[in-house]
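Researcher: I'd like a structural prediction for the single chain below. Treat it as a standalone chain; there are no partners to consider.
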Amino acid sequence: MSHHAEHGFSKWAVVERASGTVIGECGLQYLDGGPDIELGYKLARAHWGHGFAAEAAQACLGWALAERPERVVAIADPANARSARVLDKIGMVREGRWHGFDHEWDFYVAAAQPMA
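Model: Treating it as a single chain, here is the predicted structure.
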């Protein structure tokens, strides 16, 4: 809540429409203090494989690229093929590796398309 109050974005609850159950979180925050805005998501395992992560991530990414001039990044554990598929599906591009939080991550980037 403090991140949202200070920056105008944060992680939000992901709610399954059919049941009204909170099944995880998705949203934006500064990666390791900034300057990059990171897209992140986490869902309960029982809800994996139903498209919820991609739907929530696409909505957050779309909002970010429409409302904020900065690029949006994401990090994924190289062993997490499901997360990589979500990021690929929503149009993020892998641009190498990033080291942080005592781990080596795949680093993805999305940027708003320049106006023609």
